[in-house]
Predict the structure.
Amino acid sequence: MQKTLLSGIKPTGELHIGNYFGAMRQFVDFQDKYRSFIFIANYHALTSVANSELLRKLSLEIAMDFLAIGLDPKKTTLFLQSDVPEVTELAWIFNNITTVPYLMRAHAFKDAEAKNKEVNVGLFDYPILMAADILIYGSDVVPVGQDQKQHVEIARDTAQKFNRIFGNTFKVPEPIILDEVKTVIGTDGRKMSKSYGNGIGLFASDEEIKKAVMSIPTDSKSVNEPKDPTKCNVFAFHELLGGKDLPELKKRYLSGTIGYKESKDILVERMKAFIGPMRKRREEIAKDPDAVLKILRDGGEVVRKEAKKMMKEVREKVGLI
């Protein structure tokens, strides 16, 4: 029997290539190996999006994005988080076995606190809703980037604590973190992030690609000076895209036979070749939004059956039935 894989993404803005290489590519790669559940985390998005029309628009667009990168609804169950209200009920039950000091160690809360931001309860409790997302479907594995590993650790802790208190109920999931999946840097050298505005859009136009690549900062070494590819943000993007020409490019860096301008020009063309076909598929999918909505509705029906079954057992064990 296939193991169950689950993951999701928040509909909070345009996706960038960091989202793709950090997580989304894995969803496509694993859909033949696992029984895959992928959700659009619109409950989670409420921590930062307070506009109903915008949230609906972004949720539909994220679904289109998933389909455009190769997610097959015949192999992967794609659904809206909000189509499974049982997940918020389970999160409330988990809240009652979780302490405030434990949640204060969560990265998102600590980051916000360090920046003196006023944190809403949703952001503070975000990891528990994430634990409910993961555990309610009996997930075996959760593909995440290294910086999101804590979400799975919290889900594991929550499952084990519930099982100790109320009896064996939840599977204890494992994270999948591929060795080659690292934090993807942005055009300014920091982690690629929507909030930093340093990304390259996953479906960017050729003009947008060129503008982003040309904005990558470099040092002042001349064309003929040897360069360390491990310290060059332009080369980091070449590495991200991979390809058979990478060793030769590295050799030219080390021997001082390439300048940063030429490296950027090559990267622009490589990025166009990578993004172009996905952008074309995305444009075709966007012509029929009703078909996308049907995929989401069908997916929601599939997973809600599983969630209802799990919640019947949970309610019995905690004394709500």
